[in-house]
From TrEMBL:
UniProt-listed PANTHER family: ALPHA_BETA-HYDROLASES SUPERFAMILY PROTEIN (PTHR46623:SF6), CARBOXYMETHYLENEBUTENOLIDASE-RELATED (PTHR46623)
Protein name, UniProt field: Dienelactone hydrolase family protein
Keyword Hydrolase attached: yes
Protein's organism: Elioraea tepida
MF terms in GO: hydrolase activity
InterPro entries: Dienelactn_hydro, Dienelactone_hydrolase-like
Keywords: Hydrolase
Entry superkingdom: Bacteria
Length: 233
């Protein structure tokens, strides 16, 4: 495990990204996109798992313009309050710019085979969907992305590259009505794969999280590993 420094494309500064490398290269790269808790211990654990599956994992610090190196958990109310405050202040379009810079940096890393995708959770799941719409990422994965119904409300997703979405049936932040909009918009697209996980809440795949569900996480992560292997090599 290591860190790299990435320059923002708007010239406003630079930010760090946690990097986990696989045992063998060349390999595809995965930009692992944070939840509202920053580049947390949980996110680093997920990046390590991605590397263990044979990919270069790069997890950028997207809150750096607000507060560098945020590392929160879901265990205390104070951490939740701070996480939501950061989420509400976060400029998502700037976040997408930083993700595009990270994508380019990931492709340029020694050992990368030139292919790179994204994988995000919660806020990161939304940003992964935005990357599917706005970037040249080779593929994108969204775990329980929030606010996707706003991105896909028109019914035509505009997604032309492989996209995988994991939806929690009992997601407290994504009601059934919103899920219906997303499913209706994504289902007709031949490059999109969507799975709904029954009986689980938001963040069912968060390592050590309050709503961790081992069965759903294992199934979702297996689908993700196969998806990434198919499109990133």
């Amino acid at each position: 495990m290591a860190e790299i420094t990435i320059s923002a494309t708007d010239g406003s500064g630079s930010f760090f990204a946690y990097v986990a490398r696989p045992k063998r290269t060349p390999a595809g790269a995965v930009v692992v996109i944070q939840e509202i808790f920053g580049v947390s211990d949980s996110l680093k654990a997920i990046a390590d798992q991605v590397a263990d599956q044979g990919f270069i994992a790069v997890a950028p610090d997207l809150f750096w313009r607000l507060e560098p190196r945020v590392n929160l958990s879901d265990r205390t109310q104070a951490e939740w309050d701070k996480a939501f405050a950061l989420f509400n202040a976060f400029d998502q379009e700037k976040g997408v710019e930083d993700l595009k810079a990270t994508l380019a940096a990931a492709r340029a890393l020694p050992g990368c085979n030139g292919r790179a995708g994204t994988m995000g959770f919660c806020l990161g799941g939304r940003l992964a969907a935005m990357m599917a719409l706005q970037s040249d990422a080779d593929c994108n994965v969204s775990y329980y992305g929030v606010g996707l119904e706003g991105l896909f409300a028109e019914g035509s997703t505009g997604i032309t590259r492989p996209f995988l979405a994991h939806i929690a049936e009992l997601d407290k932040f994504v009601p059934k009505s919103a899920q219906g909009v997303v499913l209706a918009a994504l289902a007709p697209n031949p490059v999109v794969e969507v799975h709904v996980y029954p009986g689980v809440d938001h963040a069912f795949a968060r390592v050590s999280g309050q709503h961790w569900d081992g069965r759903a996480a294992a199934i979702a992560n297996g689908r993700t590993a196969a998806f990434l292997a198919r499109w990133l090599g």
